[in-house]
Specification:
The complex is a heterodimer of chains A (about 475) and B (about 325).
Chain A (H helix, E strand, L loop, with lengths): L2 H15 L6 H17 L4 H15 L2 H5 L3 H17 L13 E7 L5 H14 L4 E6 L6 H12 L2 E3 L7 H14 L4 E6 L7 H14 L3 E7 L6 H12 L3 E5 L8 H10 L3 E5 L7 E3 L2 H8 L5 H11 L2 H12 L5 H11 L4 H8 L4 H8 L3 H13 L3 H5 L6 H11 L3 H18 L4 H10 L22 H20 L1
Helix pairs in contact in A: 1-2, 1-5, 2-3, 3-5, 5-12, 6-7, 8-9, 10-11, 14-15, 15-18, 16-17, 18-20, 20-21
Chain B lengths: L8 H4 L12 H23 L5 E2 L2 H12 L5 H15 L3 E2 L1 H16 L14 E7 L5 H14 L4 E4 L8 H12 L2 E3 L7 H14 L4 E4 L9 H17 L6 E7 L5 H13 L3 E5 L10 H8 L3 E5 L7 E3 L2 H8 L5
Parallel strand pairs in B: 3-6, 3-7, 4-5, 4-6, 7-8, 8-9
Antiparallel strand pairs in B: 1-2, 9-10
Classes of the chains: A alpha/beta (about 475), B alpha/beta (about 325).
Chain lengths: ~475, ~325
């Protein structure tokens, strides 16, 4: 997400860095590159101009030019302005009333129905009951889709057969909610073009007759320059309360986020980062600005780790580690947790300086790797899994044959296990993250660093000197010849 | 140059054959693009409010802003601006002069032969439709099916989106409405098997065209992109050259990410063309310009509405003409 905006900005700022001293002239060059990076990232042109005007004003001031690290100052200025543009935010849903009505609207194919399901799931986790209302009577099978989505997140779906008037459906749904003790009603309206006057009028009528407490615009994260037009039209028609941006899990540059925020001024509430029902993240301006500039977002990463990892499993593994009884079985479970497709990439993308690594990972097939590793571990005897030290070359051969791999791969796995268990021993999560940030976890080849342990063959000073003498003697002999 | 001179138009641009031009094609295309051209033309005219204006930096920046707003990207927009700069710098110009240059540049960039579907020499032609989530694949398939049917082809649809909730139902409803055959499987089943069955069905029943739907996917999802290759291979098991066409459905509202989409899907599924959808909104779909430049991927059809008739062949000159229709 935002990778390209990030890359382009980084290149722009890097070229400034090389200049040594910043002058008025090369600062202008740098600013123009920032501007082009933003256009390439699909930020709408008027927004870019406005943003650049503000950045330039700050940057061209004496403050930046005279500072010791002008490029860093410029990054700071851009960062600050990004936060200002993206904020203030408020990711809460404000569900105080007995029955809160949320209305979703947007263009066709923005992801309204999927987002409805994600919201219902989120509301469900807060212990409230959500009702999904099928008010999209336009698109074929939209009602069925909502039913399937509702079922998968355990939310009730209100629909009327052969209905033709979405307004009536919405009214009846709200009544239904009141009678059945449901807390939140989510209206899934049909996708429409902002210039389709008839359908926009219909949306206004729903807004007037139902009076939804909040109205969310769902915007496709891949939208280009047009984002300003449609967002403005919807905002004019409805007075939006928030924006949800979808499909940000690809390589969308997400510039539309800036555009929409700029023209509507309403907070961005959530971002959709997966096609699955749990792929909805609250939006934070400071974190996002940091992410755009490649400063990393450790806070989000920790939160995600806590959410994504099975806490019981993690506790078990931690206990096993502390007790010194971390076995290959535990290792396998841990691997399964972190090797889930996409997870690693997501997490790495949030870490400062790891963006490139995330790209590298993109081309590797985790599931395949995972299957192979699992196969190797499954081909071991219980004893071998518990105490990997007993694995001799012949056993290794057998394990390799059993799992359809090579002895080298078995070795590789054992090395990783070794590295992991020694690394994890006694390390608190915060220490680990610190290590990750410093890059201490991996050796230059990208593999996990091996912890150094005594070989039992450490020589005394005397012995070392004696050996050196022998070596020098041999060397002199060779030179003479 | 002369090709775009309005006075030579009649001899240089013969009307397309009648069978490829459903009634009111041009008007529909124009209707869909009228919003686009209104923006372009009004804005450019704004630059020339006083008859004849000096071409200076301010002028060029304004022109650049207008071009960027079409989503064509920094590259092509910069190229056009520089062209105008070399041609008119320091001169006082008239609206028509600059418009001719801009249009010439635009059409030259977009220039492409009118390329409808390459039908198989014998047996069914297999058309696979791919794209990101929500770009309008299913609707485009319905339109394409209706379009081919109106040309007298028998069509069978393969409901290969077995992932999204109710996608199969959506396509089934279209198949019912259009009166074409559909081959489907349960949600969650292997899309490649649906493709195989659909091709098999077409062979058994002597159908002319098989249109395979696929689930929406982002071009960065490696495994899902590999799945497209599998569908391709499986479709090719029964008919050697299949799929004959792989069409990428591109949302006109998509910005520069469209380039990444074209790249990703071309690599994974060897796309042969683009269906540009949602051109009836305020979006301009200018991203097809850099796509054409970089990947040589032609736009074959355009979608300008929600009904099956809102579908037409793409034509660069008409596209350009429609953009600047009111200008001359």
């Amino acid at each position: 997400m935002f990778a390209s905006l990030q890359d382009n900005l980084r290149t722009a700022l890097k070229s400034l860095r090389g200049k040594g001293k910043l002058t008025d002239a090369n600062m202008r060059d740098g600013l123009r590159m920032v501007e082009e990076a933003m256009i390439e990232a699909d930020v709408a042109y008027p927004v870019v101009q406005d943003f650049m005007a503000r950045v330039s004003e700050e940057a061209m001031g004496q403050k930046v030019l005279k500072s010791l690290n002008p490029d860093q100052q410029l990054v700071g200025v851009v960062h600050e302005q990004l936060i200002q543009l993206l904020g203030p935010v408020d990711p809460s849903l404000h569900l105080e009333k007995d029955v809160t009505v949320l209305m979703m609207c947007g263009l066709q194919g923005a992801g309204k129905t999927t987002t409805c399901g994600k919201l219902a799931r989120l509301i469900g986790t807060e212990g409230k009951k959500a009702l999904l209302v099928a008010a999209d009577l336009q698109r074929p099978a939209a009602v069925q889709q909502l039913h399937v989505v509702g079922e998968s997140v355990g939310a009730k779906v209100y629909s009327e057969e052969n209905a033709s008037d979405p307004i009536a459906v919405c009214q009846n749904a709200v009544k239904f909610a009141r009678e059945n003790g449901i807390n939140v009603v989510i209206l899934d309206t049909a996708g429409r073009l902002a210039i389709d006057e008839e359908l926009m009028e219909q949306l206004k009528t729903i807004d007037r007759k139902i009076g939804p407490d909040q109205c969310f615009l769902v915007v496709d994260g891949m939208t280009g320059q047009d984002a300003v037009n449609s967002a403005k039209a919807f905002n004019d028609a409805l007075e939006l309360d928030g924006v949800i941006m979808t499909k940000l899990d690809g390589d969308a540059r997400g510039g539309a986020l800036l555009s929409v925020k700029h023209v509507t001024g309403v907070p961005i509430k959530f971002i959709g980062i997966s096609e699955h029902m749990d792929g909805l993240e609250p939006f934070y301006a400071d974190r996002m600005a940091g992410r755009i500039l490649g400063m990393g977002d450790v806070l989000s990463m920790v939160e995600m780790a806590q959410r994504e990892f099975d806490q019981d499993e993690a506790m078990k593994a931690q206990k096993a580690l502390e007790a010194g009884s971390f076995t290959l079985d535990d290792f396998k479970r841990q691997l399964e947790q972190i090797m889930r497709p996409g997870l690693m990439k997501k997490m790495l993308g949030m870490m400062p300086g790891f963006g490139d690594m995330a790209n590298m990972l993109q081309n590797t097939d985790h599931e395949k790797d995972m299957r192979r590793l699992r196969g190797i571990i499954d081909s071991m005897t219980r004893e071998e899994r518990r105490t990997p030290k007993v694995i001799t070359p012949t056993r290794r051969q057998r394990i390799a044959a059993g799992s359809g791999t090579s002895p080298q791969e078995v070795n590789e796995l054992l090395k990783q296990f070794d590295a992991m268990s020694s690394m994890m021993k006694g390390a608190s999560p915060s220490e680990l993250i610190g290590k990750m940030q410093r890059g201490d976890l991996v050796d230059p080849t990208g593999k996990m660093k091996k912890n150094k342990v005594g070989t039992g063959k450490r020589l005394s000073t005397k012995e070392r000197l004696a050996q050196k003498k022998v070596r020098d003697k041999a060397l002199r002999k060779r030179k003479k010849r | 140059m002369g090709l775009f001179n309005p006075f030579k138009k009649s001899e240089e641009q013969p009307a397309p054959p009648a069978e490829e031009q459903p009634s009111g094609f041009f008007s529909r295309l124009k209707q869909g693009l009228v919003k686009t051209s209104r923006v372009l033309n009004t804005d450019i005219r704004d630059l020339f409010k006083q008859e004849g204006r000096l071409v200076d930096d301010e002028f060029l920046t304004e022109l650049y802003a207008i071009l960027v707003r079409t989503d064509m990207g920094v590259g092509p927009a910069g190229k056009i601006r520089d062209q105008v700069k070399t041609d008119f710098r320091g001169r006082v110009v008239h609206l028509s002069e600059v418009l001719t240059t801009v249009k010439t540049e635009l059409v030259a960039l977009m220039q492409q032969p009118e390329t409808p579907i390459q039908f198989a020499e014998s047996g069914p032609t297999v058309v696979m439709v791919v794209g990101v989530n929500g770009s309008g694949k299913t609707t485009s398939i319905a339109k394409l099916a209706s379009y081919l049917k109106s040309q007298g082809k028998s069509v069978v649809l393969g409901a290969g989106d077995t992932f999204r909730a109710a996608a199969v139902e959506q396509l089934s409803i279209w198949a019912d409405r259009l009166g074409v055959d559909i081959v489907k499987a349960e949600q969650g089943s292997d899309p490649a098997s649906v493709a195989f069955k659909a091709v098999d069905f077409a062979l058994q029943n002597n159908k002319d065209v098989v249109i395979l739907d696929t689930a929406g996917r982002l071009q960065t999802q490696t495994n899902l992109m590999n799945e497209l290759d599998k569908i391709r291979r499986v479709a090719g098991k029964k008919i050697e050259a299949a799929p004959h066409e792989v069409l990428l459905v591109l949302d006109a509202t998509a910005g520069q990410n469209g380039i990444s989409q074209a790249k990703g899907f071309s690599e994974a599924a060897q796309c042969t063309g683009i269906i540009l959808t949602k051109l009836d909104g305020t979006a301009k779909g200018g991203v097809v310009v850099p796509i054409r430049q970089t990947f040589n991927l032609p736009v074959k059809y355009i979608g300008v509405g929600e009904t099956p008739e809102d579908f037409a062949l793409f034509n660069a000159e008409q596209f350009g003409d429609a953009l600047f229709a009111d200008a001359f």
